[in-house]
Amino acid sequence: xxxxxxxxxxxxxxxxxxxxxxxxxxxxxxPTKPTVDVPRxxxxxxxxxxxxxxxxxxxxxxxxxxxxxxxxxxxxCARIYQPFSALAFGQHELRVQAIDRAGNAxxxxxxxxxxxxxxxxxxxxxxxxxxxNPGHDRYGNTTWFYLYSATKIHDPTLYQPLPxxxxxxxxxxxxxxxxxxxxxxxxPLVGVAxxxxxxxxxxxxxxxxxxxxPYTGKVSLEMELRFxxxxxxxxxxxxxxxxxxxxxxxxxELLTPANQAHVAITLDVNTGDTLYLVIDNNEDSNYxxxxxxxxxxxxxx
Length: 301
What we know:
Largest sheet: 8 strands, antiparallel
Radius of gyration: 32 Å
CATH topology of the largest domain: Jelly Rolls
Strand content: 35-45%
Order of helices and strands: HEEEEEEEEEHEEEEEEEEEEEEEE
CATH architecture of the largest domain: Sandwich
Shape: elongated
Structural class: mainly beta
Number of strands: 23
Number of domains: 2
């Protein structure tokens, strides 16, 4: 009996040793730092990010991620991640960490990016069948205003919304003060013609485009205006354009037929500030149709 007991005990000991040898050592290696697909600048308020990482035991498809934007506190994130809420215009910081099946966490990957606001008067113009005055931008803000002046005085308190909207063809849609009985425009007007803005003042009123800032910081403004060639359009003494920041005039010049004006400036704005492009008839309203572009972009750094 003693012999049998000894043999059995020895066998159990051997089998236990075999089992211990067959058990793999605990995984203590962390995944690699995550790779992150982050644009330096994005116009999207809810940008999409792609994460990746490698591990010695966990397949890439089973690696989990934790991330956070502008916070040290991380939460579970999908491999393809999109923030639930819209981000503000400006600079942001994304932090990402990879975790394998054993719970090992990688070092953090930190990536900086900026959400850039862009506005284009012609592209943003609310066309039929849903015209708006004021009009919304691509972000849902009430940003664009199609106006005329009550008198020929540069004073934003005297600028009023143009009351009527008219479609002349799919590419030509305007706000003005109405139509004459025979179908002609009652100027002033502010509208869009193909991919350009279209302006026409009259003897007693300015034509005015307004942009109200939904952002506090710096913006770059690029404006181009052109006056049709006098061969195409009857003689005119041109128009006077003015760029205004609320009640202050930033620039003002005479634009004569067959010439162009170009402005590229950077300025500080606060949320609620309004920039105005004012077109004056220069005391003669004959053939004062003026075309142009008016674009803005947030600037950081």
